[in-house]
Specification:
InterPro entries: SAM-dependent_MTases_sf. This is Class I SAM-dependent methyltransferase. It is built from eight helices and eight strands; from the N terminus they run αβαβαββαβββααααβ. With 263 residues, the protein is an alpha/beta fold. It has two domains: 151 residues, Rossmann fold; 79 residues, no CATH class.
């Protein structure tokens, strides 16, 4: 039963067209098989913000792998739900009032970008647990943050049991000064842990050092240099998924938390 009052708080709601293109394209790549196999290909765009733009874009991108995918934008602010209504295209795209309880829905994927970053860190675990209880079997939550133009982002994949399984970093390489910049956009669960002695600090340091060492590859452009830096970081023991094509797009993923001995 859906609670009478949605669980959560109204966020700033800032959004821009194409802001979430990197995470959307990654969802197509990483979870296309999950969508194709789903009995009910339902996806929730949680906390879509002041305009429905990112929900509209999400539906269009996911439809490339599952034409009958249904996307529901869920917002806690009733004014935002009302404002989004003209963009609805039932049954493929709808908007409902709700929070971490997902308006009573049972989606296979929940995308929550730039939502929990606006909460206090202690609230993260509870939010993950609440979302997890409402996921479809085998479903996942993608919790992350990106900058206002979508050029730099990071997100965690979270299971129904509220456990993280993977961390992904993604950037527009033409504007990435160095991998240390990812620190600015870490999800709330990690940003305060970016200190010496913590795995996330060690990972970003290793990537940054590898980027500096890969300076000769700058001749081949930022894609070649970034791919070389990621390859070197992987060779040093970090369990980065071996996807050179994704590296050249400015993206890398690895299990998180890092397995013991993984770095």
């Amino acid at each position: 039963m859906t609670p009478r009052r949605p669980i959560g708080e109204i966020t700033r709601g800032t959004t821009n067209p194409n802001r979430l293109r990197r995470v959307d394209n990654w969802l197509v790549h990483a979870y296309g098989p999950l969508l194709r196999a789903a009995v009910d290909p339902l996806v929730v765009d949680l906390g879509y913000g002041a305009t429905p733009t990112t929900a509209v874009e999400l539906r269009a991108r996911l439809a490339r792998v599952r034409p009958d995918v249904r996307v529901v934008g869920v917002e806690i602010d009733p004014a935002r739900v009302a404002a989004a209504a003209p963009a609805a295209d039932p049954p493929w795209l709808e908007f409902r009032r709700g929070g971490f309880e997902l308006a009573g829905l049972r989606p296979v994927i929940v995308r929550a970008l730039n939502v929990l970053r606006q909460y206090d860190e202690p609230a993260v675990a509870g939010a993950w647990a609440t979302v997890g209880r409402h996921l479809a079997p085998g479903g996942v939550l993608v919790d992350g943050t990106c900058d206002e133009l979508g050029r730099l982002g990071a997100w965690l994949t979270v299971t129904a049991a509220a456990s993280t399984t993977q961390l992904t970093l993604a950037a527009r390489l033409a504007t990435l000064p160095r991998p240390a910049a990812f620190a600015e956009r870490l999800p709330k669960a990690l940003i305060h842990r970016n200190v010496p002695g913590e795995p996330i600090h060690a990972l970003l340091t290793a990537l940054d050092d590898a980027w500096l060492a890969a300076a000769p590859y700058a001749t081949f452009g930022p894609r070649g240099r970034f791919a070389a830096a990621v390859a070197a970081t992987r060779a040093a023991g970090w369990p980065i998924v071996h996807e050179p094509r994704r590296w050249r797009l400015g993206e890398l993923s690895l299990p998180w938390p890092v397995p013991t001995g993984g770095s």
